[in-house]
């Protein structure tokens, strides 16, 4: 399956912007960044689905 789009998201938008720029330099063409991050997303009242468990803890438990 071919990769179609990459969306980068972080808390405030700075790290995701850096990651999206790095992806563009690596040759990816459909790269998107959530400007302002999740802080801005939440402030605007957009919907958020939360995982039942902490993702980092779940990944560490499976390692």
Helices, by number, come to: 3
Oligomer: single chain
Structural class: mainly alpha
SSE arrangement, N to C: EHEHH
> Taking all residues together, what is the mean pLDDT?
90
Major sheet? 2 strands, parallel
Give the tally of structural domains: 1
Percent strand equals 5-15%
Question: How would you write the strand order of the largest sheet?
Answer: 1-2
The helicity comes to 40-55%
> Total number of β-strand segments?
2
Shape label: globular
Based on CA atoms alone, the radius of gyration comes out at 14 Å
Q: What's the end-to-end separation, in Å?
A: 26 Å
Low-confidence stretches: none
Could you walk me through the main structural features you see in this protein, from its secondary elements to its overall organization?
- The chain has helices spanning 14-25, 37-43, 55-62; strands spanning 6-8, 31-33.
- With 63 residues, it is mostly helical.
- The protein has one domain (6-62).
- A two-stranded parallel sheet has the order 1-2.
- Strand 1, helix 1 (14-25) and strand 2 (31-33) form a beta-alpha-beta unit.
- It is globular and about 35 Å long.
Which SSEs are present, and which pair or pack?
Blueprint: E1 6-8, H1 14-25, E2 31-33, H2 37-43, H3 55-62
Parallel strand pairs: 1-2
